[in-house]
Amino acid sequence: MNKQVIHIVAGPTASGKSAKAMELAEKHGGVIINCDSQQIYDSLPILSAQPSDEDKAKVPHRLYAALHPNDVCSAGNYRELAEPIIEETLAASQTPIICGGTGLYIKALIEGLSPMPDIPEDVRAAVVAKYENFGAEKFYAELKTRDPEIAARFHVNHKARIIRAMEVLEATGKSLAKWQKEDRLVPPAHWRFEIHKILPEREELYRRCNERFKWMVKNGALEEVKKFDARLRSGEVKDGVPLCKALGFKELRAYLNGEISKDEAIEKAQGITRRYAKRQITWFRNQL
């Protein structure tokens, strides 16, 4: 089978990825497929910078507003959702345009993943609670007893790694080391990726971050946050879901609750957005 081209448009927040994706889609008869961990949810479309209705009318868009906020989406979940859509698009003689800034999702498509299943949230919470209750030394000692192979790779102070190893053991009954030896789930052989990295100069990117956030506030982001906060308070959406980490949500929520001024909320959110964009630039330069 001939190689079929899949375009990847990647870069930091506010870099202009959506405009580039639209350009490619209109040129190649494409379908834009979301690859952003916030835009995949069906809430906060303005704050998460989802495509406009006008753009959606011009070009097909997939995996935007596709999940309820209570649904947890990992790189593995994303790959399971995106792969059949990519295949459908190719089968229809259209060009998939993968657009987003979530690097781990992009790597899952390009490089594949270990077959290790996702860890259920209740298992993850229980393991973290155990770590907090036991302390590092006792927790590490239990891991060393139950899984000496993986424990030997880590130091007692490698908190995130030893918690992850215990999560895998609890959820699957099998060592992380054994999972890592399994064959990776690789992309289909007929896929060929063409990568477009959008990496503006830092000062220009920071300016875009600042201006875009002000535009969001003027165009409905506050109303979105107010409604989402009400859903959190009612229990319809679980507190602490991934969408609560949307850039600016915490700050606008604090303003609406009378904790800080509007100007302070905007300034803080802009700063957080700039720092996030800086980290994304570093990641894309080094990892993709």
CATH fold-level topology of the largest domain: Rossmann fold
Order of helices and strands: EHEHEHEHHHHHHEHHHH
Strand content: 5-15%
Approximate shape = globular
The count of strands amounts to 5
Helix amount:
40-55%
Whole-number average pLDDT?
A: 94
Q: Give the N-terminus to C-terminus distance in angstroms.
A: 26 Å
Number of domains: 3
User: Tally the helices: what do you get?
Assistant: 13
Report the uncertain regions: none
Strand order of the largest sheet: 3-2-4-1-5
Give the CATH superfamily of the largest domain: P-loop containing nucleotide triphosphate hydrolases
- CATH C-level name of the largest domain: Alpha Beta
- Helices and strands: which structural class? alpha/beta
Biggest sheet descriptor: 5 strands, parallel
- The CATH architecture assignment of the largest domain turns out to be 3-Layer(aba) Sandwich
Instruction: Specify Rg, calculated over alpha carbons.
Output: 21 Å
Structure, described:
The chain is of the alpha/beta class. Helix content is 55%, strand content 9%. It is built from 13 helices and five strands. The chain has a five-stranded parallel sheet, sandwiched between helices. Helix 3 (75-91) crosses helix 4 (103-111), helix 5 crosses helix 8 and helix 11 (221-234) crosses helix 12. It is globular and about 60 Å long. The mean pLDDT is 94.
What keyword list fits this structure?
288 residues, alpha/beta, Rossmann fold, Histone, subunit A, Helix Hairpins, five-stranded parallel β-sheet, globular
